[in-house]
């Protein structure tokens, strides 16, 4: 029974396939599709532009460094008022003479652990660019 149904379906399928006309795309089908795809990509592409440009960051950094240098080296020499030595009056011993800094200064790392950390860091610095290159090439069209 099943053989008769399969044979009947096969005959009908063959008949439909013989009667169907073979359709072919137009001559410029690929070019027109690719042109439309390119237009879609161009219309939706967003170019990243940072809020603060690299030039502005450079100017901000340079002004900050110049201000810091002026405060540290030249402020006490140019002014004669008692405010000029405010930087010298700050007691920085609080940073170095406290329980936390003393505990950290007595802490020692074993050599094997230090070598393992250095090796891990080196391998990480090598593998990240290699994996980035690999995935960029794989996802490239």
Question: Can you give a write-up of this model?
Answer:
- The protein is mainly alpha-helical and about 140 residues long.
- The protein has a domain at about 110-140.
- It has helices at about 1-20, 30-45, 55-80, 85-90, 95, 100-105, 110-140.
- The chain starts with a helix and ends with a helix.
> Which segments are poorly predicted (pLDDT under 50) over 5 or more consecutive residues?
none
What is the percent of helical residues? over 70%
User: Alpha-carbon distance between the termini?
Assistant: 52 Å
Strands, count? 0
Number of helices: 7
Order of helices and strands: HHHHHHH
Write a concise synopsis of the structure shown:
The protein is mainly alpha-helical. It has seven helices and no strands.
What is the topological layout?
Layout: H1 2-19, H2 29-44, H3 54-78, H4 86-89, H5 93-96, H6 99-105, H7 111-139
Keywords: Membrane, Transmembrane, Transmembrane helix
Transmembrane segments: 55-76, 112-131
Which key phrases capture this entry?
7 helices, mainly alpha, 141 residues
